[in-house]
What we know:
The complex is a heterodimer of chains A (331) and B (319).
Chain A: H1 2-28, H2 33-41, H3 49-59, H4 66-78, H5 93-128, H6 133-145, H7 150-164, H8 184-221, H9 224-231, H10 236-261, H11 268-273, H12 279-288, H13 292-320, H14 322-325
Helix pairs in contact in A: 1-13, 2-3, 5-6, 5-8, 5-10, 5-12, 5-13, 6-8, 7-8, 8-10, 9-10, 10-13, 12-13
Chain B: E1 4-13, E2 16-26, E3 31-35, H1 42-49, E4 57-66, E5 69-70, H2 76-80, E6 87-90, H3 94-97, H4 104-115, H5 120-133, H6 150-162, E7 168-172, H7 180-197, E8 200-205, H8 208-214, E9 217-222, E10 225-231, H9 232-237, H10 242-249, H11 289-293, E11 299-301, E12 304-306, H12 310-318
Parallel strand pairs in B: 3-8, 3-9, 6-7, 7-8
Antiparallel strand pairs in B: 1-2, 1-4, 4-5, 9-10, 10-12, 11-12
Amino acid sequence: xxxxxxxxxxxxxxxxxxxxxxxxxxxxxxxxxxxxxxxxxxxxxxxxxxxxxxxxxxxxxxxxxxxxxxxxxxxxxxxxxxxxxxxxxxxxxxxxxxxxxxxxxxxxxxxxxxxxxxxxxxxxxxxxxxxxxxxxxxxxxxxxxxxxxxxxxxxxxxxxxxxxxxxxxxxxxxxxxxxxxxxxxxxxxxxxxxxxxxxxxxxxxxxxxxxxxxxxxxxxxxxxxxxxxxxxxxxxxxxxxxxxxxxxxxxxxxxxxxxxxxxxxxxxxxxxxxxxxxxxxxxxxxxxxxxxxxxxxxxxxxxxxxxxxxxxxxxxxxxxxxxxxxxxxxx
Amino acid sequence: xxxxxxxxxxxxxxxxxxxxxxxxxxxxxxxxxxxxxxxxxxxxxxxxxxxxxxxxxxxxxxxxxxxxxxxxxxxxxxxxxxxxxxxxxxxxxxxxxxxxxxxxxxxxxxxxxxxxxxxxxxxxxxxxxxxxxxxxxxxxxxxxxxxxxxxxxxxxxxxxxxxxxxxxxxxxxxxxxxxxxxxxxxxxxxxxxxxxxxxxxxxxxxxxxxxxxxxxxxxxxxxxxxxxxxxxxxxxxxxxxxxxxxxxxxxxxxxxxxxxxxxxxxxxxxxxxxxxxxxxxxxxxxxxxxxxxxxxxxxxxxxxxxxxxxxxxxxxxxx
Lengths: 331, 319
């Protein structure tokens, strides 16, 4: 318990410093957003000081000192207000994130969970039957599949399954003539559009989980307590699951909890290849258009999610591993 | 009938034969000590008898008769019902033999539920009783292995081995990782438990002192073979094999005025490269030419056995 409180303390400290850095970095850079915007209008004739002032007010650029800006920044964070996006002007950053987030959460979230479950399950299976034909087939397929560069594999998939044979749509999150709603045709269209990106993510990420679990499980199977479990005459299934796998899954669980934190940032490559309307695409357009408020908003989301996921990973390992539970200094 | 009767057992790891043509038998309630240096094959022998050899270890030939039934051809499925109810194991360093993510209680319960299912309350009573037998406060039942000391874990392992009242228990270096005070305590405890439960046991150790204290009979292993087997009393007084003699000389009598410890020069042979002749001959102080050319046969007589060319000659000389 004391360990968890201590971890919660460091969580808050980490969040604070990440958010503060997120505030400071853009302000330490030369220039300000109004100048960026002005530059866009350069070719269209001169702008008067009133126009400059109007833009500054509109973008929320204040001339108070840094500390007051900092306080103001915190107030805005709690109001979930990250300012106005330059690229999608006059929409706010919040509205852009709100639009993109569900797409990423569903696509990347579901595939991350599926990939972990399937990969870990297959890892257990191939470790349990290590050396068998099944193990050799599973392990070599996944080693091969996870060595593809993702973008290459995704583009081949798009070319073959979407462009050439038209089995799946080649881009977008839903049919372009549709308006997002909670109707059956729309959801069906969204699912249909997500199959190809989801498949490519699964194929390229399953291998990692499978290999990690297989390796951990094989070393767990060599432990004395597994041998003793065999000597006890416990059924094979119990031996595999509650002795070997139960111990071997601990490191995988930690990686899994941490990978959940990165779900929010989306898979930039996936979303670019499939023009998927998610966070990865949004971040990419923010970066390529020097849209600082949007970048800042997205970074903030990512940082918070990663830090919270790390905390959850810690909590999870405390729950699953009694050696960490008391004291905090594991044996 | 003997509880355990091992005949011509040979165990190999690939091309290396770690146990060669071993014969032994064990009566009800008897403790047979097996001593030998590292690599003498004593642990392999124990694992083979309980059919717990790790691959690539394999029983190449021989019989392991437990209450008359040969265990060698049995499948793991057929063996499962004998495990722990009939034959249980205490491994070296209970620290790694207990599942780190399960409480002590759960490690008792899973084996009870599989072999002799009983109610929750009765099971709790049984766990408490078993822990008290090895002088562990029952409150530790709900603790995890890492919260116990090495000696406590080893005592828990012993209690665990006894929980289904088995006929045969294999102790594989049970005291090796412990300090002498704890070792002595465990040995005393085991003697008491044996009187109470009357189990038969194989007690494997490289520590001759501990074995002499607990075992009724002792088998001395060298290079994968049993070279001598005698009752503990006779082994101490009249060791017949030069290797046994040399081993006993390694343990000085603490009451002697001048303490003299003698080592055995040389190293055991490479088991991958066994040549004819007695494997101990190169280190033996009394070897004769036959020792280097002919492998001595293991001659059994009732509960004793010896593999040495000097056997007959000694008697002649002494007569």
